What we know:
alpha+beta; 5 helices
Amino acid sequence: MSITNITTLADTKFLKLYNAEYINKNGNPKNWSIASRKDLNTLKDNYFNGAEGDIDAVIIIAMYIDKATFVDKATPAEENKLVVIKQFRVPLNDYVYEIPAGLIDAGEDFETTVKRELKEETGLDLLKIDFKKTKAKAYISAGMTDESAALVYCTCQGSISKAYLEPDEDIEIMLLSKAEAKSLITSNEKIDIKAYLAIQNFIG
């Protein structure tokens, strides 16, 4: 199977919609709608010239480390907690539980984006990225979009704050214990699949 042509259906600031003409495995011409964050020239370069596409976003699995762990080894530290957010999402017209995430700005590497997005969405400060667990590039929903993201495991500290949120971000920030996380994924609350999998991994 291979794409033979691609044309623009819609073009907005953050998202584009393309029609891809392709030949299926039986040799028949077909069409597929593709959502992408890339412009047409970049997409054509990826498809027809073998160019490696840049990562679009970061997905942040952040563990909040209790300060007592570092300050006084004799003081029992609280259980480390998973950073989870509850955010209003226009396509759902509702709030949904997620983990912090964001788009990579031009000229940024994903480590810079993680630090910036974690601060913006939660007020927390990045401590350290676990590069052994981090996946530098993974795909979000390959049946619909070419969007890719770095899946980043990290630790953080600091105080929760909404002071850095953008006007269109309506976010509640939570530090979940394993018990609270388990209660969330067994509830009927709306939850993003990435958050669901992160929580499953967290509770073991």
